[in-house]
Amino acid sequence: xxxxxxxxxxxxxxxxxxxxxxxxxxxxxxxxxxxxxxxxxxxxxxxxxxxxxxxxxxxxxxxxxxxxxxxxxxxxxxxxxxxxxxxxxxxxxxxxxxxxxxxxxxxxxxxxxxxxxxxxxxxxxxxxxxxxxxxxxxxxxxxxxxxxxxxxxxxxxxxxxxxxxxxxxxxxxxxxxxxxxxxxxxxxxxxxxxxxxxxxxxxxxxxxxxxxxxxxxxxxxxxxxxxxxxxxxxxxxxxxxxxxxxxxxxxxxxxxxxxxxxxxxxxxxxxxxxxxxxxxxxxxxxxx
Length: 288
Fold this sequence. Notes:
Number of helices: 12
Structural class: mainly alpha
Order of helices and strands: HHHHHHHHHHHH
Largest sheet: none
Strand content: under 5%
Mean pLDDT: 96
């Protein structure tokens, strides 16, 4: 069993921002977004890209699998599961509340579209993080097998700009929400998802306020743990057409820094992503 472990202490992470990359790193970023059909580089991949030799090896192994019918179907199953499960947490319905606050229907639709983009992309990022952790920690990779390429588009057909509300641009109330996010989740940073949603600060303050009442409950933790284990099972069932072995990825980690350092960073994101996915599903349920 792949235990859900939060590293202690939290390792230093050095995400390589998209706007700074050039050369081979930019090629890797562009290919990652193209294959995953996402408009942003997840912090997990930007943090692992700091170890370029390792990320090269991981992406060589992951790209064919992530572009497969098998991966798309696995992510769809996982999404259906979590969106069914969060209903048990009784998220309050907030569409009418936003209307009463003065939000126009188009603004509410933009929030929904942003949530849809994350609801799609986070599963693929989490699948990569799971496969990476399986290889680095347990020495496990799926057996060599052929891949069935996915033709066409599986990403949501939306066009919503990603405007990140960074802390230095935010008002005091939003910075207080960011502090609550960090304290509640025990993380030194605020994920991209939350910074995008904070573009609508009164909405995000309300949405996060609803969620804080459930994130430490047994019901919430059970849902996140079940999702974590489901990811592990689905990751091991994906195709491995490149015949990449766990040893190959471990050696690449040691060439980049050390296996221990890369594993600690991987563990951090592998720990947080099932919770992040659950939180986004909760936010979506508020706006159904």
